[in-house]
Amino acid sequence: MEERNGWTATELAVATLLFVLVSSLFAWEGVGWRSRIALDTAAWQVASDLRRARSRALAEGRRVRLVFDTRSDAYTTEKNHDGAYLPSGPPVPLPRGIDLVECTARDDTVTFSPTGTAPTFGTVVLENRGGEKRSVVVDIVGRVRIVR
Predict the structure, then answer these.
(1) CB-CB contact of 111 with 63 (8 Å)
(2) Fewer CB atoms inside 10 Å of the end CB: C or N, the chain?
(3) Are 66 and 49 in contact (CB under 8 A)?
(4) pLDDT band for position 3 (50/70/90)?
(5) Percent of the chain with pLDDT over 90
(6) Which positions ≥6 away from 96 have C-beta within 8 Å?
């Protein structure tokens, strides 16, 4: 009986083909995962900034609000100074591929009072290119949560 060392050309071709097929399947699935991760990241970003606005309102004893702009997929934090709201930083854009679909709060603005409650409250809806959505909900008592 003859001892065999190495692989035949046919075996190498089949192994290479299987490797390419499996790799392409994982790469294809990875595209959906990246889009989902970007959506979750954006939802956490919005929720975190809303919670930070509430904390600032409590700490500084003044109203703080986030104004959402669905046209530019961005939002701005504003503080109340003697009855007028002034931006406290540049607009915050959402990650690429994430759309700010809707804000149900009055005037697309979520406001926190010095007591931590939310006189203007609602839901901020985000969507990725795959059509998946996440909602960031602020209720009247100022609680912020993410809903799938």
Answers:
(1) yes
(2) N
(3) yes
(4) low
(5) 76
(6) 38
Instruction: State the DSSP string of 79-130.
Output: EEETTEEEESS--EEPPTTEEEEEE-SGGGEEEE-TTS--SB-EEEEEEETT
Q: What contacts 76, CB < 8 A, 6 or more positions away?
A: 66, 67, 69, 87, 89, 90, 91, 92
Residues across the chain? 148
3-state secondary structure of 133: strand
What DSSP state is assigned to residue 50? Answer: H
How big is the CA angle at 94 (ends 24 and 78), to the nearest 5 degrees?
Answer: 170
Query: pTM for this one?
Result: 0.80
133-138 vs 122-128, strand pairing mode = antiparallel
**Which tokens is 110 given?**
């979520």
- Burial class of 59 by CB neighbour count within 10 A (0 to 12, 13 to 18, 19+): exposed
Task: Give the confidence band of 32 by pLDDT, cuts at 50, 70, 90.
Answer: confident
Q: Which residue has the higher pLDDT, 24 or 52?
A: 52
